[in-house]
Amino acid sequence: MGGTPAGGVPVTGAPGRRPSPSPAGGPPRRPPTPQGSPVADRLGGAPRSAADAPTERVRARAVAPPVEPTQFAKPVFTGSLPPAAATRPPQRPAPPVRPRTIDAQTVVIPRVGEDRDAQNLHGVADADDEYDVGDEDAVAAREHPEDGIGRKAVRGIGELLITAGLVVLLFVVYEVYVTDLVSAGKQDDVTAALDDQWGANTVDGAQREAKYELIEGSAFAKIYIPVFGPDYKFSIVEGTTDADLEVGPGHYVGTALPGEPGNFAVAGHRVGKGSPFNDLDLLNSCDAVVVETQTGWFVYRVLPMEGEEQGWAEGRGRSEKCANVAPMKDPAQPGGGPYAQTVGQEIVSPKQGEVINPIPHYEGEVPVTQQASLLTLTTCHPRFSDKERLIIHATLVKQWEKNPDKPTETPPELEES
């Protein structure tokens, strides 16, 4: 065991020792490889022990004879070598590279009505902008440009017109509604005072005296127009000044009194201040207008309108309401007589004061005994204007004294509609 062959290296089974050379100068002999090991599988031997397996594998790789590559030789890795160039099938040409589609840039279209100033405020500056959109002063100047002379003038005129319109509107509201409320209060006051006066002028139930206390601004009679409804009733005051007419219908000073020969003339507002004569234009011929005094009732009826004189007796004159109503024009007298121009309704100029004469539109002298008892109502025309005057003429058809034993008795004409 301890000897060595001539010219050789000790042969042992220890790992790391070189194999002993073969006799006769041949290649060194490879130690046998145990069967069943990885090295044995490749080199046909078996390792001596598990510890010698790594070393044996290294040695095997070092001493393994070179293998001549052939066309069909299998390499160490799994798979086979590609066939020779002469036997390879023709390769298909590579498909052309298709260029990648690039989405077009989205263009934002401004909304209708969005001006360039709004775009600048959002950071989109124009090429001709002379200011920085980030500058607050510049942005404020762009939003509120300085007004020119023309712009200022137009704006000033517009403001004046708006102000004037508001003033006119407020004035109309005041005239139509506020003054009605004020006049209604004043009308209630004078009516209550008149009722107290009429009730106090009695002595032990005896007949009351026919007496008028004509004091300007104070009531002395009442007027009813049945066709305007059962609630239509106003107290007539003495005088036609603005202060008097704010209370109610006013009696023209100097004209006749109710029931007397001549012309009992009364004025009243058409719009505002109680509006007692607002619907005066709706009166027709033969409509009743009733006047109440302390001692009696007086029934007037509207005269025939212009154009109704012809055929009056055969037409409307046959109505029961028109029994005592006839045209004032007298065909037997030259020019129709003093009452030729006296009709039921007319529109005149404010300067035509002759409509309240004892005989309307007549300037001559006529004995009182030959004068008819008339009622004339005057008001402004058209509504909301005093450009002209609307005139209503009526004639007295019935009167009677009040019965002190029946103070609530009223004429049947108040029931007409």
Helix residue percentage: 10-25%
Count of DSSP H/I helices: 6
CATH superfamily of the domain at 188-415: Sortase
Q: Helix/strand/pairing class, anyone? A: alpha+beta
Output the CATH class name of the domain at 188-415: Mainly Beta
Instruction: From the alpha carbons, calculate the radius of gyration and give it in angstroms.
Output: 66 Å
Rough outline:
elongated
- Roughly what is the average pLDDT, rounded to an integer? 79
Per CATH, the architecture of the domain at 188-415 is: Beta Barrel
Strand percentage: 5-15%
Note the main sheet: 8 strands, mixed, barrel
Overview of this protein structure:
With 417 residues, this protein is an alpha+beta fold. The chain has a domain at 188-415: Beta Barrel (Sortase, Chain: A). It has six helices and nine strands. The protein has helices at residues 38-43, 53-63, 116-121, 136-143, 149-200, 242-245, and strands at residues 219-224, 233-238, 250-251, 262-267, 288-292, 296-302, 345-348, 373-381, 388-401. The protein has an eight-stranded mixed beta barrel. Strand 8 and strand 9 form a beta hairpin. The radius of gyration is 66 Å and the shape is elongated. The termini are far apart. Residues 1-17 and 38-47 have low confidence and may be disordered.
List the keywords.
417 residues; disordered N terminus; 8-stranded mixed beta barrel; Sortase, Chain: A; alpha+beta
